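I have been asked to look over a protein record a colleague put together. The record follows directly below this note.
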Amino acid sequence: MKLTTFRVHTPVGPFERFGIVRLDGGPEDCAAMARQSQGWIIDVNFAFAAKSAEDGVGNPNSRADAFCPSDLLTYAELHGPALEGLDELVQWFEARTAAIATAEIVGPRKERVAYRLDEVELRPPVARVPVLRDFAAFENHLQTTFGKMGLKIPPEWYERPTAFKGNSTTLVGHDEEVRWPRYTRKLDYELELAAVIGAPGRDIDVEAASGHILGYTLLNDFSARDTQKGEMAMSTGPYKGKDFAWALGPWIVTPDEIGEIDSLAMSVRINGDVWAESTPGTMQWTFPEIISYTSQDEPLNVGDVFGSGTVDQGCGFEIDRWIEPGDVVELEAAGIGVLRNRISQAAGPEIRWRWNQSE
């Protein structure tokens, strides 16, 4: 199942809603259908109200607000990763579309229950990420990038998962513009997977950790490489080199649908040209392992995002190719779809600081 947050524009303003994505075609057509915006989004809250009214339940809208909220994070806080209720809604919806046109299915207050993908804006699937952590799980990527810097992977990397925390307030969604930071001359993309937490926990055993995952999505960890280089010299982790933008989406794919993530076919396209193709391969630290490790004596929250780190060949720094203002960056993964962002030129003069005055 594909879970999303979408924005719909109405005469009284825009609203963000929780939806289920139903792409045209089969699973093998996922990426192509996503690129072409061919499919429907079921509004979970309004569909629940419509089904309740059809079942003769009183106060269907109030019941929907209580049991099937219009916000994905609130829904997960109520139900966790359990999907039984959503499966029932999908079955109800598909039974109706077999008899009448999708656009004719309405709620008890004449609410639209479904939208074409090209009618709405896709937002980051989790709009309010409590904590965003990005790990480094792929050895091949690290060997290449460290080697280009004349370094070796520290032995500590093999001993425990390591991550840094990002600014979750700068998330952008599918097809949203990313503004080129005025303080960098080398902007980079990074192809990553991310796990989204669907059930809270603390001191989680590795064997139980996968049960806390709501699903997986794509993460583009945009990086200002020249800025990041100076920050990393202080061994404090990235700061302005990362926190200006993180792209997340286009939606969350639940574990039952995505299958084994280490064999997913992934790629990067810039302005339609393929720059890299990859598969994640074996993670030094799996998502259950990093979830378990992180949860030791620390609570995990519903909506926390765990980035995998960049897959092999997944950034411009590795292949020495660099994006420019105006470029369209597309990350793709089989079974998930496409996360697309355009790089816009920042307004105003270039910002120069003492550390780069001589460049």
Residues 84-97 form the longest helix (14 residues). The longest strand covers residues 13-23.
